[in-house]
User: Fold these one by one.
Assistant:
Number 1:
Amino acid sequence: MESKFGERIRTLRESQNLYLRQVAPLLEMDTAQLSKIEKGFRQLKKEQIPILAKVLKADQKELQTLWLADQVLDLIKDQPNADEALKSVSKSIKKK
Amino acid sequence: MESKFGERIRTLRESQNLYLRQVAPLLEMDTAQLSKIEKGFRQLKKEQIPILAKVLKADQKELQTLWLADQVLDLIKDQPNADEALKSVSKSIKKK
DNA sequence: CTTACATTTGCCAAAATTTGACAAGTCAAA
DNA sequence: TTTGACTTGTCAAATTTTGGCAAATGTAAG
């Protein structure tokens, strides 16, 4: 599946010697779900990012960025003209 | 709602003096749906872009790019760090 | 004002997708 | 061969998206 966000939170979790079993309940899910999230098979709800950032003592902004990049990547994968579309989007948001 | 894709196909349709009633059946939908698509309340299925490009004598690549940009824009709107996430995605796809 | 016709809007149920929960599975260490 | 961490598969529930219809709106003509 491939997920930068998932890889990152797994690294963070492991570096703090936390088990899925310990983290999952704080996000109100079971270990199976969190495992899938770390492997990129499921998405964490964006509202849960701040909670996870706190639990993992991570920078919330970093996780939000990784999370969003994963979503975008998933959307555009296999799409033609993806790079051009991205450029145009970048312009659009700068105009806001 | 705001949709570059919708605005574009409406312009194309009108410039050729076609009615929703004439175009919608070619996409196997009713006028209400196509109206919503042009106004950005609904999304055209990406598989239908080539059909529409042909009907409207438009450049398929142009429509695909507009369509994808709309999808991305919808995904990232109101998200923090959107520009940073986009940058990172651009890098990712160049590595493929 | 009435008709005609293009478009829009609102609503609801059907279809599709995502999610949550659980059970069973793998794997490594002891 | 037992234990504990993690993974995988399945299935129904929940959520989101879609399709279709009917009624509303807008506009131009008669």
Note: Chain B touches chain A through 27 residues (CB under 8 Å).
Number 2:
Amino acid sequence: MARAGLTAERLARAGAELADEVGFEQVTVSALARRFDVKVASLYSHLKNSQDLKTRIALLSLEELADRGAAALAGRAGKDALTAFADVYRDYAREHPGRYAAAQLRLDPETAAASAGVRHAQMTRAILRGYDLTEPDQTHAVRMLGSVFHGYVSLEMAGGFSHSEPDSQETWARVLDALDALLRNWPAS
Amino acid sequence: MARAGLTAERLARAGAELADEVGFEQVTVSALARRFDVKVASLYSHLKNSQDLKTRIALLSLEELADRGAAALAGRAGKDALTAFADVYRDYAREHPGRYAAAQLRLDPETAAASAGVRHAQMTRAILRGYDLTEPDQTHAVRMLGSVFHGYVSLEMAGGFSHSEPDSQETWARVLDALDALLRNWPAS
DNA sequence: CAATTTGCCTATAGGCTTTAGGTAAGTGCA
DNA sequence: TGCACTTACCTAAAGCCTATAGGCAAATTG
């Protein structure tokens, strides 16, 4: 009975890979056990339950995404920062669709507050340093940027923009142009 | 053995109600059978499988949402049309979270093409008649509007904007102001 | 009113989740 | 080195969900 060397960490990482291969929805404790060639019950020593697994994958993905975002923002400002950050989201979703879906998992408030989700909000706010916005418009803009990034990526992943002209890549560039223009010229209330 | 009067239609409608009550993810053929006080196997005369049920709920929700959108757009133009249409999305999601989640279900291309999703795209394009955009910017704008509406509503539903100032309602109004300003002043490429 | 179709049933099989309790592999201390 | 202890994985089992096959009774039709 050789030991497989399971840990919650390794399970979450393998779960993330599995999510990218078969979709986050299809990630199950059973499938993960199969992947480690181990009986299902064995995983329950490391995972509280199925939801726990999904939460761990979500947290891992949020962190990866935040790390990439931070790397992209380093040394950039203004529109340069805006597009680099936005591209991180889009590229991550294309590279790791399962992880991106995981990152959308609804976390309970406590878990969310302790997650890398907080860094995401901070980074979005950092982008706005390159623009001349004061509160409460800054918060409105943070929320709008998050909405556009998430909304665009998720519609694109759902196939909403494929099989129609113009190319999604072109729209993405123009949407970022538009956001930049908007932030430079945010309407007064 | 009295008959329960099951039809695919009624099942989809009941499934939609169930989705609003317990979440779209939790909608199962079993739960639906319980609701009709009928054995599970009986539903399989009307539904091909579990996915079929979910698809029907999605199609029904897309149609309801399109109907509301059409009603909102009637007799409106410009910013008035923009906000009325956007509010339809947001209000629908708040009123019917399960149905709204269902409307995001990824449909296969054939089903999607025959769905009310097509009307949604047409209506979004109709809103832009009130602004001075020509192709391909019109398409870029259509995609951006869809992204903002979907992104904002879905982040708001996930609790992203609660427990923080300012109020989500205020941000929503300002985001629509910003979109209107942007569409009136779309940057040249 | 008989024949046919339709609607819901029972029975059954297989998959996923989760808990309880057992056994063997690794760890630490004398 | 040897023994106790802990840890890691196991078997077993119950509960719920999906899905199919085949049966009987209720509705429909001529």
Note: The interface with chain A takes residues 104, 106, 109, 112, 136-137, 139-141, 143-144, 146-152, 154-155, 158-161, 163-166, 170-171, 174-175, 177-178, 180-182, 185-187, 189 of chain B (CB under 8 Å).
